[in-house]
C-alpha cells in the first residue's frame, strides 16, 4: 500500500463552540478535500469557556486539543489563524490581540458591537498587515452562497444594468412565540444589537457587495415586540422551550428592524429583518431590479437564482430559475454534477477556501475589516435614525486609514 | 318557446373609456349573470371626451348609448348609478354633482388627488345619504380578490393572531424602459401622484382592510428615476413605444415610493410601490405575520393564498398553498368547480355585486368615501414625510363628519 | 345621446344547462365585447331537459328564450349555431340533426362515446360542409389557454427542437372521498368512459396539438378504485355530499387511467388522468422536452408557461416563468395590461372567437370533427390496451373521408 | 492544552474513485462529526484502477493510503468495511469476496447488473451474516433525504391513508445534446442498463420504501434516442464535450424508460426516467396520493416536502411546503438550526450513520441485499415488458433464502 503525504499545514485556533463554531469547524475540516488549496488547514485547538462543552466540540470535529484560555492559545507559537466565533462584545479584544501576535484572523460578523470598536479593529488589521503580513477577514458567509456570488457576477457583467431597486428581507421566526427562551443574542451588552446586527447585517453586506454600491443614508425603525423572555439556563443553539413559570429576562435588543436606504448610485433600498416572521425559518431574500434585468433570491432555496433578462425576445420574457449547481457557477465545480445542490455549511467551506488562498497571496481576503466596518457604520446609521424619529440619516464616512488611503491612490 | 323576463333594472352611467372603464363595463354586464342580485344592472350610457372612442366603447360593451357630456347625463333622470373611471383630478367634481343629483356613486381610487377634495367628497356623500339614501363606494378592487378576502377572513377568525408584520410590495415594470411613453398617469395635475396613488394606494387599502387595523404614521421616501418621457399622442392603455426623436414631457410624479409604517396595534409595516421593477408586470404582494399564523399573496397568482398555521403539528408545519376557488371561499361559489381559477376582471364583477347589494340595503358599500379618505390621508402623510427628510409623520386624524360620528355612537 | 347599433347577428341555440352549458353561455355573451368579430353572437335559446332549471339558466344568461325540445329548436329556422353541451351519449344524434339542418355546430368533447359514432359525425360534418358550408368544431377548450397556444407557437418556431418527451397529467380529486356522490359522469352508458374521456381526452388533444405530432400507439392501464357511490338525486355540478345511508350506485367507468404512448416522430409520451389525486383540484399539467428547449405548464397557474431555452448562455440557463398576459401572446392583447391574468371561462370565450371567425371564413374551425375523431381513436386504443394486458396497441388509422382525402391532395 | 482521544475505529476500504467514490469518501469523513456513532469511521484505503487518480483521491480525502488491488486490500486484515462504488458489472465479485472475508459491505446501487447476480449476492450476504455477523447494505442513498424519510414517516403514521397513486419521474438532461460524450454508463456490459438502472432504480426503491408497498407488475417501454456518442478518452464525471470529429461509440443502453406499475395494495404507479429531459439537471420527483393526504417532492428542492392533509378545515386546505430542516425531522437535528438546508452529499453521510449503527447492532442495515435484489427484479420485469410489446409483466417472486424465510417466521 502507498501512503498519502500531508501538505503544508495551516494551523487554526477556533474560538467559540456554539452554532457558528461548529459550522466553522466543519469548514476547516472540509475545504481542502474539495478545493485545491495552497495550504492544508488543521484544526489545532478549540477554545471555549465551558471545559466540558469545549472538549466535546474539539472531539466532535477531531481537533488536536482544546482550551478555555484564548490568550494562552495565542501565545503558543504554533497557531497560524485565529477564527473568532464568539459573541460580538469580545471580537475587538480577541482580534486585536491575535493581530498583534502576527496571526491571521477570521472574525464572525458583525465585526464589532459599535463603530468605535470596529474602527479600532481596522487600525489593528492595517498595522498587522504592514508589520507581519497578517490577513484579516470578516465572516459575511452569505457572500459565499453560489447563487449570490452569481448575482454579483451578473451585476458586474452588466446583465442587470443600472440598478434602481434593492429589496432585502431577512425573515426568521424563532422568536415568534412570546415564550421562546432568552439567549445572549437578546442582550445588548453581548450582542450589540438584536436582529439588526445578527441578520440585518447580512442583508446590508449582501446588498452592497452584489451591487458594488454603497448605502449612503437610511431612514429606519426598530421594534421589540416581546419585552421579556423566560430563562433556560445555558442556551447554546436557537430554539428550545422554557419550563412553566421560569424567570424572565428583559430583552434589550430589537426584535425587528426596517429601513429604506439610498445608495450612492441613486438606487432605492428597502430592508427588513425580523425574528418574528411566523412561518419563515430562515428566509434571507434579496431582489434587485435594474434597467436591463433583475435577480431574486431566497435562501430557503439557496441553490436557485431567479434571473430576468429584459433583452429576451418579447413574448418569451420571464424570470429564469437557474439551478446554481453547474461547472460555470461560482464554487460549484468543486462539488457534484449539475443539479446536485449544496447546503448551508458549504458557505463556510467556501469562506475558508477564499481565506486560505488570500493568506497564500492568491486574491484578497474579502470583506476585510475596513469593509466590514462599513457595514457597522450602516448599522449605526440605522440605530441613529430609529432613535431620531426615522429621519434620513447619512452613513458616516469612513475615517482615513492606511488601507483605505491605499485604495484611493492611482 | 318560452321567453325570459327582465328583472328590476339598475341603470348605470359609466364615465371613462380607458383601461378602467372597460373593466367596469364588463363587470356591469356580468355580475347578474353569476350572482343572484336584487337589481339587474343595465349599462345605459358610456361617457367620454373623445366621441369616436366613446362610441366605440359603448358599442363594444353593448351600452344603450354614449355621450361626451357627463353633466347632461346626470340630468337625464333615468340614471341610478354613476360609475367614475376618470383620472383623479375630476373625481370630486363629478362625484359631488352625482350625489347632489341623488345618484349612487362608484368612484375609482384613489378617491381624489388630495385630502381636502376627498373630505369634501365625504361630506357630499354623507349629505346625499341623508337626503336621498344615495350609496357611495370607492373602487379598491383588490378587496374583491377571493384570496385577499380569504386573508381578511382568516385574520377575523383569529387564525393569524396578533399581527406583528405587514409587508406589501406593488411591483410593476411598464416604466422600466426610460423610453416608455408619457401618459396622463405621469402628470401630477391629473393623477395627483404617481406610483403612490396609483398602486401604492391599493397596498395601503389592502393592508388596512385585511388587518382591520389603521396605519397611524409613516416614514417615507419617493423617487423619480426617469425625469422625461417621449410623447405618443393620445395614450389610452399602458405600454406602447414612441417614435425616435419624439418630444419628451417632464414627469411630475414619483416613479417609486417606499415607506415604513406603524399600525395602531403596534404592528410594523413595510411598503414599496414602483413601476420600474424590471421583470414584474403586476406583482401586487402582501405578507402578514402574526403570532398564530401568517399569510402571503402575490397577484400574479391571484387564485392562491399561502397560509401558515403555527398550530399545525411540529414537523408538519409549512405554508399551505390554498387554491382559492372553492365553494367555501369568498365569491367563488358563483363561478366554476374548485380548481378553475378566476381572472383580473372578476374583481370588478365582485365589486359590482357588493355595490348592487348595498344599494338594495343588503350590506354596506365598502369602502365608503370616509374610509377611502382615510387612505388619502395615509397618502398625504407619505408625501409629507418624503418631503421632510423621511421623518416619521403621523397620519392626520379624520375630521368629525356625520358618518364618522355615527360609527362611534353606541 | 347617441345610440349604439347592433351588428350582424349570429344566433345560437345552447343545448345543456350544466357546468359546461354555463361556461359556454358566458362565452357567447362576452366574445364580441373584447374581440372584433365579423358577426355578433346572440344567445337565442337555451335547451335542457328540466323546464325549471332551463328557464333559470336562460334568464341567468339573458337568452331570449328556452325550450326542452331540441328538435323543435333546430326546426325554428332562426338559428345559426347549435352548441352541444350535453353528455356524450347524445352528441352524435344532436350534431347530425343540426348539420343536416344546415346549422353550424360546436360540440363538447369528447366528440362521442365511441369511434363509430365519432366517424359517423365526421361523415355528417363533411356532408354538411359540402352541402351548406356548415362549420363544425369540437370543444377542446384547453387549446384556447393562452399559455398552451404559446407552447404550440414555440414548438412551431423551432424553439423546442426535436421533441423527445411529452408527459401529461390531468389530476383532479373530486372523487377522492369514497363517499363523493354519484353523477352521470360515472355511468358508462352516458359518459362513454370516465376519467379517460372526460379529462384524459384533454391531455391527448393538447399533446397532439402542441407538438403537431400524432400518437400512434399506446400501452394502457385503467382502474376503478371506488366501486359504488351514494346517490344524491339530480346532480348538476361536481362535488356535494350524500346523506348517511343513501343508496349507492355502481360506478361503471374508470377512476384513473395511465398510459405510455409512442408518437409518429418517435417521441415518448407518458399520460395519467385521475379524479382521485387528493390535493389536486384541477391540475392539468403538460411538459415537453426537445433537443433545443422545453416547456412546462400547470393549469392551476394558467397564466404562466415555463420555458427553457437550451441556447441561453451557459451558467444562465433555467426555466423562465413567462406570464402569458402580454400583447405578444395569443388572445391576450384583447384583454388587460400585461400581468393581469385571465380565468377559466376565458378559454370558452376564445373558443367562440375562433369559431365565429371560422364561420365567417376567417381561419379553420379547429379541431374539426375529423381531428376530434382522431382523439377518439386514441381513447379507443387506450381502452383496448387496458383490456389486453396493457399490450402496445396501435391507434387505428382514420378511415378515408372526403375531408381527410382533401388534406392529402397536393 | 488538553488533547482529544480517538474513539473505537471502524476501518473502511473505499473501492471506486469516481463521482460516487468521492461522495462516499466525504461521508465517511463526516458522519461521526455530527452524529453520535458507536464507532468512528477511518478511511483506511482508497482503491482504484488508475494509480495516479487513486492516489489523488486518497490524498484529497485524507485516506491513509491507496491501492489498485482490491483483493490484496481485502486480505490485509485491518479492514472492517468494504464500500463498493464501482460500475455494476463488478459488484457481485467484490461484494462476495468481501463477505466471504467476513467484512461488512456497502454496495452502490443497483445491486448488480442482473437478477441472477443479485440473488447470488443475497446468498453470500446471508451466509456471511450467519458465519461472521457481517452486515451488508445497498446504497439507495435517496432514502436518506430527510424529506423522503419524512414522507415515509407520514405514510406510516397514516397521514396519507390508503394509497391510490404513485407517480415518480427522474429527469436529467446531461445526454440531451446528441454530442454529449460517451461514458461507461452507456455500455450495457458495464452498466447493466442505462437510465433504468442508474436513476430509474432510485425511483423504484423510493416508491416501495416510502409506501411500504411492493410493485407486483409493470408495463414498460424503453427507448434510445441517440444511437452513438463521441468518445472523450477516460471520462470520470458527467458532462464534458468531445472534440469535433471524435470517434463515436455505440450506445447499448436505454436513454429513457417509462412504465406503469401495479402495487400489491392496488395502488397505481406511473414511472419515468430519462437523461434527455432538457432543462432538468437532476429532478428526482415523487408524488403520492392517498385517501387522507398526499405528498410531493422534487430533489431540486431537496429540503422541502409538500404535504396535503385532507382533514384540514374546508376552505383552508392546500399543499403545505414543509422545510424539512427541523429538530423533529429525520436526520436534521444533528445539523443546523431550522431553515438552514442540507445538500446532496448529506445523503451519503446519513447512509454511513445508519450503516455504522447497524454494524454496532443498533438498527437494521436497510436496504439489505435481499431488498435491493427486489428492486433488481422490478428492473428485470421492466426490461422484459419493454421487449414483449409493453405487456403487463409480473415481477418475479423472490426465491426462498434464509433471510427471507426468517422474515416470515412468527
From TrEMBL, chains A, B, C, D:
Residues forming the Gfo/Idh/MocA-like oxidoreductase N-terminal domain are 10-127
Which InterPro entries does the annotation name?
Gfo/Idh/MocA-like_OxRdtase_N, Gfo/Idh/MocA_oxidrdct_glycsds, GFO_IDH_MocA-like_dom, NAD(P)-bd_dom_sf
Annotated keywords? NAD, Oxidoreductase
Domain GFO/IDH/MocA-like oxidoreductase residues, every copy: 150-295
- Keyword Transit peptide: yes or no? no
Which GO-annotated molecular functions does the record name?
nucleotide binding; oxidoreductase activity
Disordered as annotated region, ranges? 390-410
* Source species, domain of life: Bacteria
One family name in Pfam for this protein? GFO_IDH_MocA_C3
- Record has Acetylation as a keyword: no
Per its UniProt record, what PANTHER family does this chain match? BCDNA.GH03377
Q: What is this protein called?
A: Dehydrogenase
Which organism does this record belong to?
Answer: Microbacterium aurantiacum
**The organism's taxonomic lineage, starting at the top:** Bacteria, Bacillati, Actinomycetota, Actinomycetes, Micrococcales
